Amino acid sequence: MQIDILTLFPQMFQSPFGSGIVKRAIDQKLVGVKIHNIRDYTHDKHHTVDDYPYGGGAGMVLKPEPIFEAVEAIRAAMPHQPAVDGLTVILLTPQGRLFSQQIALELSRYSHLILICGHYEGVDERVSQYLVTDEISIGDYVLSGGELAAMVVADAVLRLVPGVLGSAASPVDDSHATGLLEYPQYTRPPLYREWAVPEVLLSGNHAQIAKWRHEQAIARTRERRPELLEKANLNLRERQLLDKVELNSEGPDSGGR
Ligand code: 6GU
Q1: How far apart are CA 166 and CA 26, in angstroms?
Q2: Are 84 and 59 in contact (CB under 8 A)?
Q3: pLDDT-derived band of residue 255, with 50, 70 and 90 as boundaries?
Q4: Of 124, 135, 159, 171, which residue is the catalytic one?
Q5: Domain carrying residue 140
Q6: Is 171 labeled as catalytic in the residue annotation?
Q7: Whether residues 81 and 43 fall in one domain
Q8: Residue 240, pLDDT score
Q9: Res 222 pLDDT > 50
Q10: Total tally of structural domains belonging to the chain
């Protein structure tokens, strides 16, 4: 998968893609990530990327020309032109559809994504209408630009590309992949201060451990994100479990804090 990101602030992308799982995937050539400065696609002496809004009002609006030209240059430089349905051009904007694990999975199936980071009071509407194929927001709060949102989307999508997580880890058990939050994890020591690791995890009984983890995932989801349970497709046995953990809420979610 190739991701091209258009931004006014290329330096912001150095550290998130310069370490960890995403860097390793780039080094192994499993994925390609290129950052493009929108300013490089201007032609005037002052490299103008924004202008006053027609009709008046506060702030500045990103001009269409450099953004259209950047996307066209990226597409023209592709070694093999992907079919139109292999490419998607996404504008990061608070007006977009709300990002989710489901959308990350959907985007991970494209061969090429172009992410455009919006800024200031907005982007000329013709970019949305005639260039962009999708608009995404990462949540109901306002960021000062689309850069952090593009990093979130790129990270969530890239880790779903086969091979990126390595062979041992699998994204299928992730929080939200199953529709439930993840169960609690422990490592050594078995007793830290006066806090013990739950007995069952030390038992070596894999069936019991799997059962405990599943109960914990359900209990934790009920405690923290009850609205997810409505959407999670629980079977009859899981519904019964939910009733049971409701009566008998033990584990790290029941006390403390
Ligand atoms: Cl994609 N952009 C901005 N500026 N703010 C946001 C956002 C995007 N998603 C949530 N807040």
Answers
A1: 13
A2: no
A3: very low
A4: 159
A5: 2-158
A6: no
A7: yes
A8: 82
A9: yes
A10: 2
Residue 15 lies in a domain: yes
| One domain, residues 205 and 241 | yes
Q: Which of 106, 121, 134, 238 is catalytic?
A: 121
Average pLDDT over residues 239-251: 68
Atom in ligand 1 nearest the alpha carbon of residue 149: 1
Average pLDDT over residues 154-177: 84
Ligand 1 center to residue 23 CA distance, Å?
Answer: 24
> pLDDT grade, residue 167 (50/70/90)?
low
Asked if residue 169 belongs to a domain, the reply is no
Closest atom of ligand 1 relative to the 96 alpha carbon: 1
Q: What is the mean pLDDT of the chain?
A: 91
pLDDT: which is higher, 105 or 235: 105
CA–CA distance, 74 with 112 (Å, rounded to integer): 11
Question: Which single residue is written with the structure tokens 């269409």?
Answer: 64
